[in-house]
Structures are given as C-alpha cells and as structure tokens.
C-alpha cells in the first residue's frame, strides 16, 4: 500500500504497527526489492487471514506493510531523515521503533522480523514500567564502529571516513556523519606501564587530544574536518636507582571545523595530518643515590651545628644571669 505526505501521519496514528519501505524508483536495490516486498506483504496478509479463520497453527502478524516514494514525497523523507535507499523502518504508535531493518531481504527473514517485534511487544505489556525503560535504554542505535591502523610516510597526508553501502544507494542530501573519536594517536601504542611513566609530563596530554571528542552535524550537507600537526616527542624516563630510558610518542596540535558540502555530494569526515621534521626531547633529571645520601648528611650536620650554637648561647645567657 503506497502512502504520501497527505496520509502518512494519519495512517501511522490509526495503526499500531507499520512496516514502511522508503524507496526511490531510480535505485537499483529498490527495484530488486520490489517483488520481494510485495510477496512479503501478501504473506503477512495470508497469515492474518488464516488466524481470522481460527487456524491455531498460524501466527498473527498485526502489522501493516506500506511503502513511500521518496522522489514524489521528498519533504516527508527529509522529515524522516532517510539517508539511504531502500530504508525499511518499523513504526509503533506513530513512532520509529528500533533501528532500521538490516537483515536479509527475503520474505522469510522479514516475516520472522515482524513476528519477533510483535511478540516482544505483547510480552512487554505485562512488564513493569522500569523494566520497559531499561529495555529501551539498552536497545541498539544506528551507527558504525571503525577501528584499525594505517601505515603512512612522514609526509603530510589525510584519510577520509565516508558512508557507503553495497546494498543501498545513499541519499546524499540526508547523510549525517556525526561521529565520536574514541581514540586517535600516532606511533606505536604505548603499554600501560609506559603510559604510567610518561603521564607525569604535561606534554603527554597532547598525545591524543581528540580522544572522547563528540562532533555532531546538526544541519544537512556539513561535517567536521580535523587538522593535526604531529610532532615526534621523546620522553626520557628513569628512577633514582635505575638507568633512564627513552619512550617515543607523538604530540598532536589538533583543530576541528565544520565544512559544508553541495547537496548532491556525500559528506565525509576528513582527518588531515602534517608530521613535523623536528622533534621534542622531554627529560627529567633525577638525583643519584649518593647525591641523596650527601644531602641527608648535610641536613643532619647542619642541624647538629645549629643545635650546638643555640645550646652555647643559652648556656652563656643562663650563666651570666647567675653571676648577676
């Protein structure tokens, strides 16, 4: 059943469970999904019809299956923040419920998905409100985790993070690349004991300045670009009784700014770096053990001398008072 901007909101309000296919006619993946989507809608209707005929072996799926043409209803898809085609989204009580469908695009897989959604909702009806809230808080959220390392030469360069999908056509106008930098650093990762030794230096705080940064793109056609000046830093660490050793790290002077893109260009998060040919040496000169012993002896000797002088002065004062 096709919906448009005039009846979309009212249809969601009138039906508790709705499974929507947001598509674009020119999208090859939407064209390939079309017969499967129609077959899935017919299968859902058949299952519901069998339940009405009191067939206890069948399972009811009280879900309405519809579709929305995002070319003809651009504003509607913009409001729903459709970033790729096709987008298969489940609604409960006129609100998006869970993340978009990402499983196999087969009739059996989609029917099982709908059964699980409806059965879970019926199970949660008897739950305590706090338990429901915890369930909603731990549900999955859309996004990707990117991790790894890149081997680069000591010359200026950059790397990009761009949204792509082998089974979707991205909607460039709606692609959002808000991101969180959990960790970004240069050089060989330091072991925990090494990090503990160099953490006392203020310069170590600049080794990963982007860590924990949250960069949100609040408007369309924009994304954050990051620029870093990377300086090789050699930390000389050592104790009073041990020989000093050198730990190599890389300080980063990082800046971030929002860049704007054309409507038809897919935004990309860009990380640019410039490795400095110079290096910084950070050292801390500790005292040798014999310097420590000498200082202690000097303190003891000075204390003994001062006490002797005070004793002599007091003795003369007291003796003089007795003579008077």
UniProtKB/TrEMBL annotation:
**Is Transmembrane helix included in the keywords of this UniProt record?**
yes
Gene3D superfamilies per UniProt: Glutaredoxin (3.40.30.10)
Annotated Thioredoxin domain ranges read 1-119
Enumerate the transmembrane spans.
292-315
* Keywords, alphabetical: Membrane, Transmembrane, Transmembrane helix
| InterPro entries hit by this protein | Erv, Erv_C, Thioredoxin-like_sf, Thioredoxin_domain
GO CC annotation, single: endoplasmic reticulum
Question: What is the protein's given name?
Answer: Thioredoxin domain-containing protein
The protein's organism comes out as Aureococcus anophagefferens (Harmful bloom alga)
């Amino acid at each position: 059943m096709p919906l448009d901007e005039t009846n979309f909101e009212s249809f969601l309000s009138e039906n508790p469970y709705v499974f929507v296919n947001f598509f674009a006619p020119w999208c090859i993946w939407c064209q390939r999904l079309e017969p499967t989507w129609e077959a899935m809608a017919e299968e859902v209707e058949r299952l519901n019809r069998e339940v009405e005929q009191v067939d206890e072996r069948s399972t009811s799926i009280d879900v309405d299956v519809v579709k929305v043409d995002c070319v003809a209803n651009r504003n509607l898809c913009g409001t729903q923040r459709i970033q790729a085609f096709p987008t298969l989204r489940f609604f409960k009580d006129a609100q998006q419920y869970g993340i978009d469908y990402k499983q196999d695009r087969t009739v059996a897989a989609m029917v099982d998905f709908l059964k699980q959604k409806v059965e879970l909702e019926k199970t949660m009806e008897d739950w305590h409100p706090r338990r429901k809230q915890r369930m909603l808080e731990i549900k999955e959220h859309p996004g990707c985790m990117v991790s790894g390392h890149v081997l680069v030469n000591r010359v200026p360069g950059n790397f990009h993070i761009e949204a792509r999908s082998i089974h979707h056509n991205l909607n460039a106008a709606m692609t959002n690349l808000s991101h969180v930098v959990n960790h970004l650093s240069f050089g060989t990762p330091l072991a925990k004991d090494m990090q503990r030794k160099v953490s006392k230096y203020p310069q170590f705080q600049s080794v990963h300045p982007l860590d924990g940064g949250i960069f949100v793109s609040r408007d369309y056609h924009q994304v954050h670009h990051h620029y870093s000046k990377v300086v090789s830093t050699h930390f000389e660490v050592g104790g009073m009784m041990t020989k000093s050793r050198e730990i190599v790290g890389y300080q980063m002077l990082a800046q971030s700014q929002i860049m704007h893109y054309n409507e038809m260009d897919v935004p990309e998060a860009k990380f640019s770096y410039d490795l400095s040919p110079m290096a910084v040496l950070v050292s801390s000169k500790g005292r040798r053990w014999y310097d420590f012993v000498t200082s202690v002896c000097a303190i003891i000797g000075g204390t003994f001398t001062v006490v002797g002088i005070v004793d002599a002065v007091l003795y003369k004062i007291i003796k003089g008072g007795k003579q008077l």
